[in-house]
Predict the 3D structure of the following.
Amino acid sequence: MKTVQLSRHGDSSAINLVDTDRPQPSPDQVLVEIKAASLNHLDLWIRRGLPGLTIPLPHIPGSDASGVIVDVGENIEKWNPGDEVVIQPGTFCGVCEQCQSGREDMCHSYGILGETEAGVQREFICLQVNNIGPKPKNLSFAEAAALPLASLTSWNMLKNRAQLKQGETLLVLGAGSGVGSMAVQMGRYLGAKVIATGGTEAKRSLAFSLGADEVLNHRQEGFSKQVKALTKGRGADVVFEHIGESTWIESMKALATGGRLVTCGATTGIKGSVNLRHLFYKRQSILGSTMGSVSDFYECLHLAEQKVLIPVVDKVFGFKDVRAAHDHLEFDHSFGKVVLESWS
């Protein structure tokens, strides 16, 4: 079978399409034929190499995918060959207290396909049933592949961690990204007033089309003042952060008294200073978040099937053009998700 493989850390030339053996499912697994897989910035970081994270090479990247079940293990009852599925990227032990209570994302051994173990960018993959869900019928395979990691991450951030409420003001940084585009739609669904930001005119137009009430340019100095002006001096009740170092100070300034900043990433850098006096005097909260639970995943699939969530696809590449897809995401990305589709 064809497999995307990372042979070393470096630029896109470190990624190759190679032939490997087709796996066979164990009694408790299903065998999925991958029809489409999307890229995340995580794939770029893994390719370049992450400080403190040792990744055995060669490595199969990829967290997001959609496909069709072609075989099932003898213990599988609820899934059958021919079922169209979306892959849930989180991995966990399944037996600890957190897993048993339905908070698998809090498992001590929680991991992500394509990061802590081999990923989905291959023609066939064997998976546990906790790692699959039914593909929404209204989505193409490419659209479905763009859904899992971004929607699961955004939903957990807003619904569980920040507990966004109807009538509150939500500030979404980087609305043109995968997680950002999902956050705008989720904020609207949860009844919040959504202020979004985008670094280009195209990304700002996208944010409006997804339901944002106001859209700002986060590359302009002092966007927190614009947020304050739009909220009559109060600021945002929830700030959705993932850009990191370049926007962190302004994001904190944009936060209201009693507000919650929730973050899942640091695309522009890992350092973010905090004015502790403001933090405790304004009773603010800073919340970290990574992915979400299996029930969160199914909730996102339901919202996509109800057309509440619309995955945004920027560009589709063939798997044979995976290097070009990496370069596009790294240097020419416009908005939405970059997707790999078709092995021929």
